[in-house]
């Protein structure tokens, strides 16, 4: 039964890659598949770059060769877990809060070799700290500041400072659940997270991690990717043009694995 479930999860992962290729990349030739970091650095002005990521290593089971296949196919960031435990680590909602397994450390070693990001956004607190010790290329792809919103998935000040010390990116999330304690949010509420991370010294470590994956609830004025301009214009009332450009793209480009 377990083998059957693993095969199903692997099949679903491969299907999602195929959907990306068939339905996203063929959108009028505008979308360019970023398979290597140099593809992003050399992206033509008239193209939009899109890259594959993996959230949760369940599809690979215990097989690092399967992860290698995904990396060969262009996966450039890997989160070891979603909210629950798996063979690599505990997720943030797992009550026992354990850290990395030996297999999880093997995965990070492979990601280091391949210059792929290890994403800490869903890891348990213990696994977060152990990942910072193991991973060369760290990213929080969709996490905000716990001091502003106390959701367990957000990062506390010590974690944020450690990410800055590690020269890692923190991508602020556009979901009301992670933005305010009452789950009702507008653009100014998102900016409060940016303000807080900047106060801790992370001006050059901030990016955006919308989590626009079909979420049912939205930040007012920032309901979908088409509203990004609203967000940037409001940010421009708080920060300089150069700082906003940093948040929007340059900070991330400056932190690409080398």
Could you name the CATH topology? TIM Barrel
Cα radius of gyration in angstroms: 18 Å
Please identify, by name, the CATH architecture. Answer: Alpha-Beta Barrel
Main beta-sheet annotation:
6 strands, parallel
Distance between the termini: 42 Å
Task: Report the sheet-strand fraction.
Answer: 5-15%
**Main sheet strand line-up:** 3-4-5-6-7-8
Report mean pLDDT, rounded to a whole number. 96
Which outline best applies?
globular
Question: How many individual domains?
Answer: 1
Structural class: alpha/beta
CATH C-level category: Alpha Beta
Please count the beta strands (DSSP E, at least 2 residues each): 8
What is the CATH superfamily label? Metal-dependent hydrolases
Q: What is the H/E string?
A: HEHEEHEHEHEHEHEHH
Q: How much helicity do the residues have?
A: 40-55%
| Spans of at least 5 consecutive residues with low confidence | none
**Count of helices?**
9
Question: Can you describe what's shown?
Answer:
With 258 residues, the chain is α/β, with parallel strands linked by helices. It has a single domain (2-254), classed as Metal-dependent hydrolases (TIM Barrel). Helix content is 40%, strand content 11%. Helix 3 packs parallel to helix 4. It is globular and about 55 Å long. The protein starts with a helix and ends with a helix. 33% of the residues are buried.
Topology:
Elements (H helix, E strand, L loop, with lengths): L1 H23 L6 E3 L3 H5 L6 E3 L1 E4 L8 H9 L2 E5 L22 H13 L2 E3 L5 H10 L3 E3 L16 H9 L3 E4 L14 H13 L6 E3 L19 H8 L5 H14 L4
Parallel strand pairs: 1-2, 3-4, 4-5, 5-6, 6-7, 7-8
Helix pairs in contact: 3-4
């Amino acid at each position: 039964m377990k083998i059957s479930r693993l095969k199903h999860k692997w099949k679903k992962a491969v299907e999602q890659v195929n959907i990306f290729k068939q339905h996203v990349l063929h959108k009028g030739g505008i979308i360019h598949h970023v398979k290597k970091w140099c593809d992003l650095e050399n992206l033509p002005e008239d193209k939009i770059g899109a890259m594959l990521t993996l959230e949760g290593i369940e599809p690979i089971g215990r097989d690092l060769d399967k992860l290698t296949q995904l990396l060969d196919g262009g996966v450039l960031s890997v989160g070891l877990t979603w909210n629950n435990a798996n063979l690599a680590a505990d997720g943030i909602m797992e009550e026992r809060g354990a850290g990395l397994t030996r297999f999880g450390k093997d995965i990070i070693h492979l990601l280091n070799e391949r210059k792929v990001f290890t994403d800490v956004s869903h890891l348990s607190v213990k696994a977060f700290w152990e990942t910072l010790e193991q991973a060369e290329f760290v990213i929080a792809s969709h996490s905000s500041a716990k001091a502003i919103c106390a959701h367990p998935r957000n990062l506390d000040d010590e974690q944020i400072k450690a990410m800055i010390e590690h020269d890692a990116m923190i991508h602020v999330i556009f979901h009301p659940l992670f933005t305010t304690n009452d789950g009702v949010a507008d653009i100014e509420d998102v900016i409060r997270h940016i303000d807080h991370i900047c106060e801790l010294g992370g001006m050059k470590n901030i990016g955006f991690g919308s989590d626009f994956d079909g979420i049912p609830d939205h930040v007012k004025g920032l309901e979908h990717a088409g509203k990004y301009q609203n967000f940037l214009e409001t940010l421009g009332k708080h920060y300089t043009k150069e700082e906003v450009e940093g948040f929007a793209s340059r900070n991330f480009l400056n932190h690409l694995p080398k």
